[in-house]
């Protein structure tokens, strides 16, 4: 896998630029854009836009999904995960909405989450205009995008209209370690993830400092949210060589404890967000399983 970009702990802007160079290089390695997918960029607020991916030969109402990009809450962009979005649309025949959101520290918590929530509500309200079915909607993402997706899901879990039909979460941050319940905290071993490819334990600490969310706020530490028990079908992907591994597995355990229909797949030996590298054979496996689970959950939702 090679080394990881060294975070500048003095400047979020410098670190953002480092990660942007990495993400741009990975995006450049993605396959050419297929003609089978249409795209449209829509300004939904004065500051934010959503990129909409639609199958070119769509017929009838298709399910819709909100795809939230990664980047540690302080980096990343819709364009950097364009290839992943297109792949999901091709495999799952779904309309994807991918929002830009405010990045920390310039936009501290909860600004980025609020942007994502506005985009989710906008998708629900406007899905039919793009050929989508707002009653069959998923929310998904990896890394910080997984955290934000889970926070959207718990926020709307008790709302009959806005509750998502399915959630897909990859390598997620689920709870600030300072706020972990004792049953999880006593098993936490951050020292195991000090120096790893992609990101390290210290990178997670720094990213959370820049985000500046209260450790026990359940709309950041979503594992603590009382509506976890109300979540819909959920698929979770965990990377074992990753400082988010334990947070990911703890969220899975919390869902299971509350009776959520949840499944986890562990990618043994792989580092954080490895599927962002399009040339890896393991990326094909990851995406294939991701879309298979998405299809299964949406089919179940349609039948209910």
Automatic annotation (TrEMBL):
Checking SUPFAM superfamilies in the record gives:
alpha/beta-Hydrolases (SSF53474)
| Molecular function GO terms recorded | hydrolase activity
User: Which ranges carry the Alpha/beta hydrolase fold-3 domain?
Assistant: 66-275
Give coiled-coil spans as residue ranges.
none
For this UniProt record, give its keywords in alphabetical order, as a comma-separated list.
Answer: Hydrolase
Q: What is this protein called?
A: Alpha/beta hydrolase fold-3 domain-containing protein
């Amino acid at each position: 896998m090679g080394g990881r970009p060294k975070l500048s702990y003095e400047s979020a802007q410098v670190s953002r630029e480092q990660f942007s160079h990495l993400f741009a290089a990975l995006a450049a390695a993605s396959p050419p854009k297929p003609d089978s997918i249409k795209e449209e960029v829509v300004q939904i607020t004065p500051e934010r836009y959503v990129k909409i991916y639609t199958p070119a030969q769509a017929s009838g109402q298709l399910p819709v999904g909100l795809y939230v990009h990664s980047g540690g809450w302080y980096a990343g962009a819709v364009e950097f995960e364009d290839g992943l979005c297109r792949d999901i649309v091709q495999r799952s025949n779904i309309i994807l909405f991918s929002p830009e959101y405010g990045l920390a520290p310039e936009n501290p918590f909860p600004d980025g989450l609020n942007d994502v929530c506005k985009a989710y509500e906008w998708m629900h309200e406007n899905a039919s205009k793009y050929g989508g079915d707002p009653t069959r909607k998923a929310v998904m993402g990896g890394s910080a995008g997984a955290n934000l997706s889970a926070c959207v899901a718990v926020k709307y879990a008790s709302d009959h209209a806005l509750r998502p039909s399915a959630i897909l979460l990859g390598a997620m941050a689920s709870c600030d370690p300072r706020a972990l319940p004792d049953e999880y905290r006593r098993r936490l071993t951050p020292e195991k993830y000090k120096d790893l490819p992609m990101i390290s334990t210290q990178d997670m600490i720094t990213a959370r400092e820049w985000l500046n969310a209260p450790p026990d706020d359940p709309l950041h530490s979503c594992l603590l949210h009382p509506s976890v028990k109300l979540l819909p079908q959920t698929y979770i992907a965990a990377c074992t060589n990753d400082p988010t591994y334990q947070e990911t597995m703890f969220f899975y355990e919390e869902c299971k404890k509350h009776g959520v229909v949840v499944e986890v797949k562990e990618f043994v030996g792989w580092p954080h967000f490895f599927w962002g590298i399009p040339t890896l054979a393991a990326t094909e496996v990851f995406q294939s399983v991701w879309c298979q689970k998405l299809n299964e959950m949406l089919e179940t939702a349609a039948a209910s």
